[in-house]
Amino acid sequence: MTQEELLTVNADTCVDARGTSCPGPLLAAKKAIGTIDKGQIMEILSADEGTRNDIPKWCNKKGFECLGTLEESGFYKIYLKK
């Protein structure tokens, strides 16, 4: 997705992992993925730069679709579709 398209995404659930460092955001995402249905979108908030790589790799491994990342002031918003 383009950055403009990501701005319009309405996530079904949000995981706020901004207070944790690697691998905290990935572990929080792994825990939360079980709470959404196939086709739903999850937003992960993380201040850890490594999450930008970890989440897409995990999505690829598990068959989820990583929609993209938005960079905000001091944190990232990463979107994935289950």
What does this structure look like?
The chain has one domain: 2-Layer Sandwich (Translation Initiation Factor IF3), CATH 3.30.110. The mean pLDDT is 96. It is built from 3 helices and 4 strands; from the N terminus they run αβαβαββ. The longest helix is centred in the C-terminal third of the chain and has 12 residues, at 51-62. By secondary structure, the chain is an alpha+beta fold.
CATH hierarchy: architecture: 2-Layer Sandwich
Tally of contiguous helical segments: 3
Mean of the pLDDT scores? 96
CATH homologous superfamily descriptor: TusA-like domain
Trace the largest sheet across and list its strands.
Answer: 1-2-4-3
Family: Belongs to the sulfur carrier protein TusA family.
Protein name: SirA family protein
Domain UPF0033: 15-39
